[in-house]
Design brief:
By secondary structure, the protein is of the alpha/beta class. It is built from 15 helices and 14 strands. The chain folds into two domains: 238 residues, 3-Layer(aba) Sandwich (Aspartate Aminotransferase, domain 2), CATH 3.40.640; 145 residues, Aspartate Aminotransferase, domain 1, CATH 3.90.1150. It has a seven-stranded mixed sheet with strand order 2-8-7-6-5-3-4, with helices on both faces. Strands 9-10-14 form a three-stranded antiparallel sheet. It has a two-stranded parallel sheet with strand order 1-11. Bound molecules: pyridoxal-5'-phosphate. The site of pyridoxal-5'-phosphate has 15 residues, from helix 3.
Length: 403
């Protein structure tokens, strides 16, 4: 069967160069980088070099980088770590309604612990209103956390502007840049952020390794207490092979980002135009230009995105939707809901995220195969019947979700 992968925002394949770079540290150089004897020397040196490479990628200094176990941990460390370190100054946090669960659920947890959180809304293109942000700031505000690129739509938030406001008000500013990393430049000297989360597996590195940039002067209370690793900010023997792979992925991104971005933007246009032109009742979700080059989110109105995904999977095409079947109910995308879509739009959404594996041939395959599937699925959909006025019940039940 064909295998077409359009889900690079979920994860990416490990680049062959990354795999090669990691191998020695899984095999012969297995020492503990904290050891002072011979076994620790090569791993320690490899880690230092890896840290330098990732610092080049972010344009920061080695003391400003903490390696973590994944992007989720980076977000948790940034948010809980700041909340704990500044709790005497205030208890108010500002975020948005369209963040990744790693941020949203961390904020929800802090609400239970006595913090107050403002969840900013977004416009129909998925972007927050700067004036609304300014108005939300109080003298108790200690942290603003706003993602750079949205994982479902690819839409970019005005990070530099938010950072300027935060700086002026002396509020810590964190951005989850996990979907931006490797796709657009991330220069800490330009972004006005105090904290930036990144994760290796979203840009051809291995799973299970992330990093948090912590600007000099910013303080995060550790989540993991233990040895003196990462300057006492994250205890635990380092994932040496993972970190080496992470650094190789960063090196490849520095080399390839620009050309690959152009290639993907062209492919994405071809996909978007192909699908939107050939399928009636479709809608592009998110800002048309202000987004990372690889992501497109399209609503096929009056059907369930899930059934399209199952049909695509049978053709060997991997894509994804914001909505997921959890505990037997169809859970809609919180991002698309925040953008003001109505149920018949957000239930029919599909996200295609392109990357190194994507080719023109893949795009053309989808453009050819998907429109007839949409037509067929629609003809069987109670939503479509309702739209046509046959009066069928509109219901998203567990049964329709799992079919
Ligand atoms: C994938 C992702 C995360 C989580 O990163 P992991 O390394 O998988 O834990 C957080 N935020 C965004 C925007 C993501 O896309």
């Amino acid at each position: 069967m064909k295998q077409i992968y359009f889900d690079h925002n979920a994860t990416t394949p490990v680049a062959p160069e990354v795999f090669e770079a990691m191998l020695p540290y899984l095999k012969d150089e297995w020492g503990n980088p904290s050891s002072i004897h011979w076994a620790g020397r090569a791993p320690k040196k490899a880690m230092e070099e890896a840290r330098d490479m990732i610092c080049e990628f972010l344009n920061c200094s080695p003391v400003e980088l903490i390696f973590t176990g994944n992007g989720t941990e980076s977000d948790n460390l940034a948010i809980k770590g700041t909340a704990l370190s500044k709790k005497k100054k205030g208890n108010h946090i500002i975020t948005t309604r369209v963040e990744h669960p790693a941020v949203l659920n961390t904020c929800k947890y802090l609400e239970k612990e006595g913090f107050e959180v403002t969840y900013l809304g977004v416009d129909k293109e998925g972007i927050i209103d700067i004036e609304e942000l300014k108005a939300a700031i109080t003298d108790k505000t200690i942290l603003i956390t706003v993602m750079y690129a949205n994982n479902e739509t690819g839409v970019l938030m005005p990070i530099k502007e938010i950072g300027e406001i935060a700086k002026e008000k002396r509020i810590t500013f964190h951005t989850d840049a996990i979907q931006a990393a490797g796709k657009i430049p991330l220069d800490t000297k330009e972004l006005n952020c105090d904290l930036i989360s990144i994760s290796a597996h979203k840009f051809y590195g291995p799973k299970g390794v992330g990093a948090l940039y912590v600007k000099r002067g910013a303080r995060v209370v550790p989540l993991l207490h233990g040895g003196h690793h990462e300057r006492n900010r994250r205890g635990g023997t380092e994932n040496v092979a993972g970190i080496v792979g992470f650094a190789k992925a960063a090196e490849l991104a520095i080399r390839d980002m620009e050309a690959e971005g152009k290639r993907l933007a062209l492919l994405r246009s071809r996909l978007e135009e192909g699908l939107l032109e050939r399928t009636p009742h479709t809608l592009l979700n998110g800002h048309k230009t202000n987004r990372i080059p690889n992501t497109t989110n399209i609503s096929f109105e009056f059907i369930e995105g899930e059934s399209l995904l199952l049909n695509l999977d049978m053709l060997g095409v991997a894509a994804s939707s914001g909505s997921a079947c959890t505990s037997g109910s169809l859970e809609a995308s919180h991002v698309l809901i925040a953008m003001g879509l109505v149920p018949e739009q957000y239930h029919g959404s599909v996200r295609f995220s392109l990357g190194k594996l994507s080719t023109e041939e893949d795009v053309d395959y989808i453009i050819e195969k998907l429109p007839p599937i949409v037509e067929r699925t629609r003809s069987m959909s109670p939503l479509w019947d309702a739209e046509k006025g046959t009066g069928a019940e509109i219901e998203f039940s567990a049964k329709s979700c799992l079919k």
